[in-house]
Amino acid sequence: MAKLIGRDVELSTVDAVLAAGGPAALTIAGEAGIGKSALWRHAMEAARGRGFGVLSCRAAEAEVRLSFGGLVDLLRPVNGDVLSFLPVPQRDALECALLRRQGEGEVDRRAVYLAVLGVIRTLSRWNPVVIGVDDAQWLDEPTRAALEYTVRRLTGERVVVIAAVRGDADEAPFGAGEALGDARAPMLRLGGIDAGALHRLLRERTGRSWPRPVLTRLHASTGGNPFYALEMARAMDRSGKGAAGEVVPLPPTLTQAVRDRIDALEPPTREALLYAAAMPQPELSGLRTVLPGDGMAALQDAEDSGVVDFDRGAVRFTHPLLASTVYAAAAPGERRRVHAKLAASAADDEARAWHLALSATGPDERIAAALEEASARALGRGAPTTAADMLDLAARHAPEPDRSRLLAAAAERVFFAGDAAGARSRYEAALAVAPAGPERVRILLDLALAVFYADGPEHAGPLCDRAIEEAEGPAAAVAYLRKAWYRLDDHRARAGDARRALELLDTAAPPDLLALALLTAAWFGFHAGLGFDPADVARARAVLPPESRTREASMSRNVLRVFPRYLDPVAGRAEIEAARAAAAEVGDESGAMQSLVHRGELDCWLGAWEAAREGAGRAVETAEQIGQLPWRPYARYVLAQATALLGDLDGADAIADAGLTESDAWVELHLLGVRGFTALSRGEAEEADRWLTRLADLCASIGLAEPGVCGPAADHVEAVTILGDLERAQLLLDGLEERARRAPRPWLAAVLHRSRAVVATGRGDLATAAEEAALALAVDVPMPFEHARAHLAMARVRRRAKEKLAARDALLAARKGFEELGAVRWVAITDEELHRLGLRRGTEHDLTPTEERIAELVAGGMSNREVAAALFVTPKTVEAHLGRVYRKLGIRTRRDLARVLREP
């Protein structure tokens, strides 16, 4: 392998990245002609020399719109033996994407992405792997998305990505910098080589030495750009100038230098090169069928001139500027003639459609039909963005009546590919040419959906109002339902929109639309405090067609997965987990992430706090990775809640505060509930009241009478009772009573009985308090934290009644429940209550478990601050406990404590 001239530092970087073994990425960036491709080719050869398996492709401007063109090249060495390690759905999807088999129906692009990741992981188990992409800025979008999906999931795999990209790149391609970190994803920004290196390069490539004055001018004019300098030197050679003492006119730009080089070729050679430049992936076999006369001999002349080279049947321009210059230099009519001939011989539908479009002089219905058909093929291969590009082009060639339909279809493709802004612009273009009627209403509603994700709900609602004005029957019902889901202000108004949708539907309405209307009315009616009838949910479940894939069916299933948490959390969790597993199986990251959030919320209720914290953490990361930032604060709420329950109150506050800066009203109220809970857990009743009053005010401002979660309301009752404001505590309790009357459910009954016991204890009505605490304990709900808090409430009643033994039994039951859950802060609260009883617990030195633990840590050498951090309490709490330990043991110093604990 010949060594690159003037690139010693860069070569060392390449060697270091390869030696590290991966996962890693190297980006080679710089202007055209600076030597990126040469360094990239050297890196590929160096990788082979080190035993890497090399998967490489060289992207070209002509193929940027063709689906998976780069992936076909990258995975060309991957045979069926490797693909056999993939699950069958993934293998089938990948083979369709690579045109190795004909698929039936539409391929899920996520299955293709999962398959690419699976192939890379399989190969990396046998040998380290290099994924190499030259001219990555021209890589087709489906391939880019597949590589980004893979790179973001590299952890310990022996995989190195090496990409060359034109221009002053700000970040590594494929999300490598964010996924791997800057240390594992270095960027080489190539500059010019020095004058000495340039002299050696020119001497090697042109076979002659150059006078120093000429060399100095070349270096100064080109900035040391190797390709630019070489093209200028060749221009001098062609002119016969460049001898010592001559004043040599230099081409003013690199483009002009390359143009001069192309113009110097014979006309048949330029024509042969035009065919190659017009093809996405020129092959000798394909060119042989279209080149006129002695075209193949002319192509050989181009290779002899160093413009192209032949690589295992493929024709490659030695520099991308040569291809673009050849194409730009041809007259428009000549380009159209070449594309027409290439269209006639193309074996691939996508390529044929592109060539037909580029051969046309104006609108052509035949070309529009070919593009639409090719779009369907691209979508079937799992390339929605390519499909959308083809539909855009089809719309320009289609007759007027078809344009809005084609533009709307293109918008739908990019929306489901995750580009809401791109969908919005296409829907707006479709709306501008759509005639009045059902199609225009549908475009308005789809535009509202794209705007909701791209710009926010406040911009989507007015579009729904426009659709309502123009729609009739079921279409108007759809508009009312969309409006209900998009507006965030008034839940009673949202429930009203849903009821109006139901009124517009009759028994002949589409069943998936009827199901969504029933569920939407039930959902917003419940949250608006209008009550709840489980029969509506049951009816919706019964009428929803199980195989329907409409947007209404998808929304209905989402509601059906979430609604059960208010009725049966255990069944709800099982359904959500099944949805998460199904989404993960097909690579639906968005669906899996959303299910993690909903599952985590239920895990907090059911006592699986570590699982909730782990899943919510993953959901936060996924929301950031896939750009679904509206879901990040919701995931942060679940993460904060689980963190608080596990006793890290400061950590929970930090997470909640981060979520509060970016959340909508629905998530904000949940985060405020977390802050109220952490304050109450610290014993800061006034602070808890402040946070929970904000929550109540927010609910009132958006007409949310039933937020669904009851813990914050019960915490508010307890905090205000502790503050001694029993009148306000009763008002808050009345609110809980009303919620239970409108929409009764078992776990709300448990919370309500405990809250009644808290207020009755505050009033001194201990008989009522004891009765309510007993009722709270009798409610059979699988919510262990609530059960432990009911024991704690009972203990406080018994203590106030001077029933110390009964109080101790209740406290020990509460403590056992908290300890099993890992609720360390609430274990400490219970221990403090036990201490207040003044009863012996039968432990050595009469220390409480918390006092024993603190004594052990202090005797082991920890400071008070270190003990506080270890037990998730404040240093003042440690000081208070330590003072009691000293008094009980009759000692004064830490040295005494260590001595006493060492005594047998």
- In the sheet with the most strands, the strands line up as 2-3-4-1-5
Level of helix content?
55-70%
Q: Provide the low-confidence segments as ranges.
A: 243-248, 840-845
Alpha carbon gyration radius = 35 Å
Biggest pleated sheet: 5 strands, parallel
Strand content: under 5%
CATH topology of one domain: Rossmann fold
Give the terminus-to-terminus CA distance.
76 Å
Helices, by number, come to 47
CATH C-level class of one domain is Alpha Beta
Please identify the structural class as seen in this structure. Answer: mainly alpha
Features:
single chain; Rossmann fold; mainly alpha; two-stranded antiparallel ribbon; 904 residues; five-stranded parallel β-sheet; Arc Repressor Mutant, subunit A; 68% helix; globular
Concise summary:
With 904 residues, the chain is mainly alpha-helical. 68% of the residues lie in helices and 4% in strands. Mean pLDDT is 85; it is low at 243-248 and 840-845.
Can you put this structure into words, describing what you see?
With 904 residues, the protein is mainly alpha-helical. Among the domains are: 182 residues, Rossmann fold (3-Layer(aba) Sandwich), CATH 3.40.50.300; 59 residues; 66 residues, Winged helix-like DNA-binding domain superfamily/Winged helix DNA-binding domain (Arc Repressor Mutant, subunit A); 64 residues; 70 residues, Serine Threonine Protein Phosphatase 5, Tetratricopeptide repeat (Alpha Horseshoe), CATH 1.25.40; 59 residues, Winged helix-like DNA-binding domain superfamily/Winged helix DNA-binding domain (Arc Repressor Mutant, subunit A). It is built from 47 helices and seven strands. The strands form two sheets. Strands 2-3-4-1-5 form a five-stranded parallel beta sheet, sandwiched between helices. Helix 7 links the parallel strand 3 and strand 4. It is globular. About 1% of the residues have low confidence.
